Amino acid sequence: LTVNYESTVDWQEETDLFRSNSHFQGAPQYDHVIIKTACPTSLGTNIVAQLLMMFSIAVNRTTYNLALVHPLNRPSGTRQQKDVDLQFLRLRAHPCKSAEFVFLSSIICDALVVPDFSLQGDHFFVDTVDGDIFLRY
Question: If DSSP codes are grouped into helix, strand and coil, which group holds residue 86?
Fold first, then answer.
């Protein structure tokens, strides 16, 4: 899947390529994406989610492009001091049963998310990967 979006750095059109494959070069590859939501969340009006599956469905001669995503959110409570000191944005995966369907058109761009190996289910959102992500968050 490719998504085009307007960069907040230079207002030019950018393109992201997403992967959702259980056997990508011999290993699972499920990219993370930023999704525009209708309701505010702990991350504003956008959420970060892991892209699990993409598909199309036809209903009454209308085709809908959908994605199954696993949402990540900021943990509730006080931030860990090391996260504050190092300016980390920690994200926590919801239980697997909380996977949601979203329209592919609601995907804004990709997101670099890395696991926190010291806490199962926690991840770090990397906002310094490019200027666009840095300015958005």
Answer: helix
Distance from C-alpha of 52 to C-alpha of 82, rounded to nearest angstrom:
30
Domain range summary for the chain, segments of one domain joined by + = 2-136
Six-digit token string for 17: 């390529």
Tens digit of each residue's pLDDT (9 = 90 or more) over 45-75:
788 899 998 899 999 999 999 999 999 888 7
- Cβ–Cβ under 8 Å, residues 124 and 91: yes
Beta bridge partners of 66: 55, 103
Q: Residue 110, Cβ neighbours under 10 Å: how many?
A: 21
Q: Is 112 helix (H, G, I), strand (E, B) or coil?
A: coil
Task: Kindly report the pTM of this predicted structure.
Answer: 0.75
> Where are the alpha helices (H) located in 1-130, listed in sequence order?
81-86
- 129 contacts: CB under 8 Å, gap ≥ 6: 112
Q: What is the 3-state secondary structure (H, E, C) of 92-111?
A: EECCHHHCEEEEHHHEEEEE
